[in-house]
Every structure is written in C-alpha cells, then in structure tokens.
Specification:
Structural class: mainly alpha
Keywords: Membrane, Transmembrane, Transmembrane helix
Organism: Alcanivorax profundi
Distance between the termini: 51 Å
Transmembrane segments: 49-67, 73-95
Oligomer: single chain
Number of strands: 2
Number of helices: 4
Number of domains: 1
Strand content: under 5%
Low-confidence stretches: none
Protein name: SLATT domain-containing protein
C-alpha cells in the first residue's frame, strides 16, 4: 500500500507534498540511492569475480604443485608458476581497487539515504495525521537538505580517500 503522502506518476511512486522543494529532495534522494545501489552491484560483481578468480587460481596452483611433486615434469612446474602469477594478479586487483571497501561505503551511503527518506516520509505522514500539531516548515526542509548533503559529502570524501589509496598502489 502506498502511504498517503505518496502518489503514483507514470508507474513510479513519487511524493506529493505542498512544498515542491521537499518533493524534489525526496526524488533526489531516491535517484542517489539508485546510483549508489548500481555502484554497489558493480563493485560486488567485480569483488566476486576477482576473489573467486584468486581462489581458483590458488587452488589450481596447489594442485599443480602436488602433481609435480609426484611426476616431476617441468611443464607442470612452469604451468604452476603461471597460474600462481595469475592468482597474484587477482590479489593485486583486489588490493588496488579496494572492491570490498567501496562496497561497504556504498552500502553505508544507501542505508543513510534510506533512513533520511524514511524520516522525511514519516514527517509527511505525521503532518497528514495531525496537521495541527505537526507541520513541516522550510526550516525542517533545510535540515533534511543539510543531512542529505552531509551524506553525499561523506560518500564523496570516502571515494576520494579510496582513490588516493588506489593511486598510491600503482
């Protein structure tokens, strides 16, 4: 069920409040949540691919070394060295691009944006339920906007910090 303060427009649920700035803020929060969820999915795929590649390459290396101990064939030793190098490349990608850290920051940002959106929608509901005792004012909207900007600033700061760290690992 769609809350009273939200309506459907062209198949999407959008806010409906008498302050257009509050409506705009809710739409922007949802857009940023979608952006960060997209980044999270991309980082999760990259992390899964590289970590599984590293695990598989390490396992194959161990297996090839065990075979080579028994058979003592130089080709298998060279193959083990090559697969071991591939495992190291996967490990380097994991360290350089910091997929798990990026993933954690994206999740943290999505959660903060979701919490902010929930708080805004709850205030809108309270205003509809009890308009005499609960009013959303421009000051309240400014507080919500400031919280939104703080969330984005923190996410940007984390992104820049990770970028600096990954550049140092060249």
């Amino acid at each position: 069920m769609i809350p009273k303060c939200l309506v459907r427009k062209r198949g999407k649920v959008v806010s409906a409040h008498h302050y257009s700035s509050l409506n705009k803020l809710i739409v922007e929060i949802e857009n940023r949540r979608n952006d960060f969820n997209g980044k999270r999915r991309k980082n999760q795929r990259s992390y899964n691919l590289t970590s599984k590649g590293q695990i598989i390459a390490s396992s194959i290396t161990t297996f090839l070394i065990a075979i080579n101990v028994e058979l003592d064939i130089s080709f298998i030793a060279f193959l083990a060295i090559g697969v071991s190098a591939l495992s190291s490349v996967f490990g380097s990608f994991l360290a350089k691009y910091m997929y798990s850290e990026r993933l954690a920051h994206n999740i943290q940002t999505v959660c903060a944006l979701s919490e902010l959106k929930f708080n805004i929608e709850m205030d809108m509901e309270k205003e509809m339920d009890d308009p005499d005792n609960h009013r959303i004012t421009m000051e309240v909207i400014d507080e919500f906007k400031d919280r939104y900007q703080n969330i984005l600033d923190q996410a940007n700061s984390e992104w820049q910090k990770n970028l600096k760290i990954s550049r140092k690992k060249k």
